[in-house]
Amino acid sequence: EPEVTQTPSHQVTQMGQEVILRCVPISNHLYFYWYRQILGQKVEFLVSFYNNEISEKSEIFDDQFSVERPDGSNFTLKIRSTKLEDSAMYFCASRQNGPEQFFGPGTRLTVL
Amino acid sequence: QKEVEQDPGPLSVPEGAIVSLNCTYSNSAFQYFMWYRQYSRKGPELLMYTYSSGNKEDGRFTAQVDKSSKYISLFIRDSQPSDSATYLCAMREETSGSRLTFGEGTQLTVNP
């Protein structure tokens, strides 16, 4: 069964450093998302991406965040200058045309 | 008022019990109602979704939506220890993008 994959599973970085989180959505899916979950808190929407552009973003997704689909398979989230409060699980999700969003296993980001 | 409210539990039941999980919401524009299951430090796994009001059954799981009360439920019949996880409700509007808004999740333990 096709699934969303994410790499790395765990990323440790120093405050102020740039990180890139990578996702490979399900191959025939058209809509791509990033969510995050701070430990013990709810899953929060960051950004959605369709047709090679951002279709919606939350107030969390400020200028330090960016997304890119550099080729036909990868979807990346870049955080330019990480802060302590960026420590969280980051989930990528994708969907085809229906409403079901399928989530990857997540990348745990730890900012020291 | 939070957009989506979900009792975080924890909820502990004996094997074979019927489990009832619930969410309330305030945004009357929500039209799609999802239930996800999340194991510790893993990605959310879609169980089922319902469009607008009504019931939907899938095996041991039944989802109910009452839009007049802004209340949704997930019932698990004949609960098994393998059902032990955190259950997340998530919702989205039909027309203004496809971001999911999640509840806090209810932690369920089914004891053998």
Overview features:
heterodimer, A: 112 residues, mainly beta, seven-stranded mixed β-sheet, four-stranded antiparallel β-sheet, 11 strands, 0% helix, globular, B: 112 residues, six-stranded mixed β-sheet
Describe the structure.
The complex is a heterodimer of chains A (112) and B (112). Chain A is mainly β. Chain A has no helices and 11 strands. Chain A has strands at 5-7, 10-13, 19-24, 31-37, 43-50, 53-57, 65-68, 75-79, 88-95, 102-103, 107-111. In chain A, a hairpin with a 2-residue loop joins strand 5 (43-50) and strand 6 (53-57). The mean pLDDT of chain A is 95. By secondary structure, chain B is mainly beta. The chains are: A mainly beta (112), B mainly beta (112). Chains A and B meet through strand 4, strand 5, strand 9 and strand 10 of A and strand 4, strand 5, strand 9 and strand 10 of B.
Question: What is Rg of chain A?
Answer: 13 Å
Low-pLDDT windows of residues of chain A: none
Average pLDDT figure of chain A:
95
Largest interface: A-B, 25 and 23 residues
The proportion of strand residues of chain A reads over 45%
Q: What is the first-to-last residue Cα distance of chain A?
A: 37 Å
Determine the number of helices of chain A (DSSP H or I, runs of at least 4 residues): 0
Helices of chain B, by number, come to 0
Which descriptor suits the 3D outline of chain B? globular
Report the oligomer. heterodimer
Overall radius of gyration of chain B: 13 Å
Strand content of chain B: over 45%
* Number of E-type strands of chain A: 11
- Biggest β-sheet of chain B: count, sense, barrel? 6 strands, mixed
User: Roughly how many Å apart are the termini of chain B?
Assistant: 38 Å
Extract low-pLDDT stretches of chain B: none
| Range of helix content of chain B | under 10%
Compressed to H and E, one letter per element, the order of chain A equals EEEEEEEEEEE
In terms of structural class, how would the helical and strand content of chain B be classed? mainly beta
